[in-house]
Amino acid sequence: MSKKRNGNGLSVPSEALRDSVPPSVLELRALRERALGGAAPDRIEAQKSKGKLLARERIDHLLDDGTFQESGLFVKTSCHDFDLQQASALGDGVVTGFGKIDGRTVAVFAQDFTVLGGSLGFAHSRKIARLMDEAIRSRAPIIGLLDSGGARIQEGVDSLDGYAAIFQANVKASGVVPQLSVILGPCAGGAVYSPALTDFVFMVDGLSQMFITGPQVVKATLGQEVDLETLGGAKVHSGRSGVCHFLAASEQDCLRQVRELLACLPSNRWQRPPMWPTTDGPERPSPFFQEVCALDGRKPYDIHDGIRELADDGGFLEVHKGWAKNLVAGFIRLGGHTVGVVANNPAHLAGALDIEASEKAARFVRFLDNFNIPVLTLVDVPGYWPGLEQEHGGIIRRGAKLLYAYAEATVPKVTVVLRKAFGGAYIAMGSKLMGADFNLALPSAEIGVMGASGAVEILFGKQIKTAADPEGQRRRLMAEYVQRFASPYQAAASGSVDEVVEPKALRSTVIRCLEVLRDKRRPGEDGARGNLPL
């Protein structure tokens, strides 16, 4: 070997040796090329023929350019049964690593359906669980891109134990770092429980499915014919079951939504969400609420319009848009800061609370409390939705989850009664003695045990029937009842309302209240609580 010595007397390689490529480097390059190539060309073509992106393409769409640092590239299954050593590619059907979104570090894994149908074996699961553990230590959000046929049958109980390891990691991460599950193909059997343990689930219409038992099992067991979309498609889970939080029209749209959501969230429980500059001044008037004050209490309106009017630049990222529409939840910014909104929607079921609305709001409030995001509650609720279905379905047990979530939350809480707040539903919607910091009301607000019509019927029914002008007497008694027992000023006199607000000044008032509360709780000081599925 040709060598020469430098000024320190140490031997160094010659230029010719430096320019040559060692065999070990050549071997590395060959293995890397093989691993990055993935599955056989026919499997790749089959994936693309369905209009689906490949695992690495999905990661490229999601992350900032050039930021992905992969781990576990050369992992391979240790199972030799059924020729798995030959059938499985390097990486074992899942791509794992870290990257950045808007300059912030995230952990991401993407299952590769072209490798054994994205099925989960022991090595596959170990890669995911290790990534999640490292994300917890690094305090980085976890994003899972799921596209898998489920447990790898050839690996038997090892594949089931693999899911258990992932579920354990999901629970360890819950309430510590945000967890997002993006369903980009099938997600079947026990695999569905990992997304269910995470904070938010994204699905693509016509592409994503989630189900515990597939159509064949349903037919064999119950004799029912059902297709994949009807059983567990994206529209079913976004509009009926409530499993899906965000519905997208395409993979690219879905990954854009993931980035949009992360922009609203902190990276972990020790941080606040990032602040985004805005030119939308806090003193901008909000005339929508002036119109609400003039509306008859029984007339519906769409609360989305009010939320957008309050928000900086009219921006609103809604969660569970298609499910439990009588209650609206999502993220806005006020003065550049992320705020979570929970609002009754009189356009659906008169804005009444029911089982689904209670659970929807409860889990959202718990998430906000986990990650230092203030809660703004907009109240226009006539009560709980009545009926056998609600009572037999457990509205008592399941409605209590919302009470617990508000009482437990220690983040800043501002509540605004817009029009009506009656009975137990008034209590549940962030009332003063449930721990709200500031309770505001518009001058048209009615707050009481029940509405004036029902109240006067109970209190003065006989008097109304015997009056010379029953309808006139009813109106007079209703007006008197509102003034004495349901007026916002009566609630303010007792301390249940802190301020009756000029409608057009609502945005500026809420922003000032949140500024006062900015340091109410320092991030990470409270004991960590998981975001328990509800």
pLDDT averaged residue by residue: 90
- Sheet bearing the most strands, described? 8 strands, mixed
CATH top level class name of the largest domain: Alpha Beta
Beta content comes to: 15-25%
What would you report as the Rg, rounded to the nearest angstrom? 28 Å
Q: Helix segment count?
A: 22
Total number of β-strand segments?
Answer: 19
Estimate nothing, just give the exact number of structural domains.
3
Give a brief rundown of this model.
The chain has 534 residues and is of the alpha/beta class. Helices cover 41% and strands 18% of the residues. Strands 12, 13, 14, 15, 16, 17, 18 and 19 form an eight-stranded mixed beta sheet that branches. Strands 3-4-5-6-7-9-11 form a seven-stranded mixed beta sheet, sandwiched between helices. Strands 1-2 form a two-stranded antiparallel sheet.
Note the main attributes of this structure.
22 helices, 2-enoyl-CoA Hydratase, Chain A, domain 1, 7-stranded mixed β-sheet, 534 residues, 8-stranded mixed β-sheet, single chain, alpha/beta, 3 domains, 41% helix
